[in-house]
Amino acid sequence: MTSFKENGNPFGAHRVIEPKGVLPQPAQKLDNNMDYMWDNEMRVNVEILNVDSASFTQIKEACGGDIDKIKKMILEIVGERGKQQNPVTGSGGMFIGTIDEVGPKLSSRGLKKGDRIASLVSLSLTPLKIDEIVDVKKDIDQVHIKGKAILFESGIYAKIPSDVPTPLALAVLDVAGAPAQTQRLVKSGDTVVIIGACGKSGVLCAYEARKKVGKSGKIIGIRHSGKHLEDVTALELYDELFQMDATDSLKCYDEIYKLTGGKMADLVINCVNIPNTEMASILMTRDGGTLYFFSMATSFTKAALGAEGVGKDINMIVGNGYARNHADITLNILRESPAIRKMYEKIYT
Asked: What residues does each domain of the chain span?
């Protein structure tokens, strides 16, 4: 029988070990003891971690792609911090699991033991205890584990739909904020540039942008490699799809300048998982345009000072992983587009 502590903080501050006075995300260490709960917590048996792309890329590179070393590094991070928060990128990811117990203050939400959910808050603020890493799917940033996690009163989640395979639902829900924000930002007639065009979030953003730009708009994709190129090209989401290095800001500027007759992009969406792409994104955006950074590899300092340094008056938006109804919007893309679903099922299931 679980013992409950009373009057837990709605944002989970009661689980912060150090430093005191901060919330769980910026904290250096969380209490991940699963033997007790607070009255406003939910405990979940975790099956799969979908590690943030920027974080997993860094871990994979640091470990030389070696599975055993990746496992060891993840266990060390969680052991030291009580959560899966990459100390280099600061980012986490999300999980899928089965509800183990619901605190009395959350009982009115209609949740019950055995319900399968996906967390929609970052692993960087989620108390996590890993008993065993069962498998590492390094090509899709997923880690299968036996363990438990805690969701706080303020934590958001989605019940796993019966019509979408679990690994696929986890993969797309991890980036659900991106297509939902894209739906808000794109206007009819816009020229939209998507960096990371063939990646998971890039394709979802392109789908939402395609619906909004209309016949007079244009969607330009920038990709780094040929991975998934044939499948993405067949989706016919992009008017132009280029292979360019997004860290080469001048080349990116020159190509978009030529394509747009010097007008540049109304909206640039950055979905890449590597650093140093801020300046290319800034230069490709027209004065008065909008730049949406969905990449966890983004440096606020480089973006802010870089735009100032080249005299660019643009609206820069930090990619909030949460947007109202973002889970429904993203899962509906899989229902509306059999081609995208087929492509992602091939990758993630």
From this structure: 3-160, 177-343
Looking at domain 177-343, its CATH superfamily turns out to be Medium-chain alcohol dehydrogenases, catalytic domain (3.90.180.10)
Distance of CA 100 to the CA centre of its chain: 25
Q: Which residues of 127-158 are buried (b: 16+ CB within 10 A; e: fewer)?
A: bbbbeebeebbbebbbbebebbbbbbbebebb
pLDDT one-digit tens code per residue, 220-266: 999 987 778 889 999 999 999 999 999 999 999 999 999 999 999 99
Alpha-carbon gap, residue 315 to 335, rounded angstroms: 32
Is the whole model's pTM more than 0.90, yes or no?
no
DSSP codes, 312-346: ---EEEE--S--TTHHHHHHHHHHH-HHHHHHHHH
Identify whether the C-beta of residue 326 lies closer than 8 Å to the C-beta of residue 177.
yes
- For the stretch 100-144, pLDDT in tens is 999 999 877 788 899 999 999 999 999 999 999 999 999 999 999
- Between strands 191-195 and 218-223, the pairing is parallel
DSSP assignments along 272-300, one per residue? -SSSS-HHHHHHHEEEEEEEEE--TT--H
CA–CA distance, 247 with 224 (Å, rounded to integer): 10
For 176, residues 6+ apart whose C-beta sits below 8 A from its C-beta are 120, 321, 323, 326, 327, 329, 330
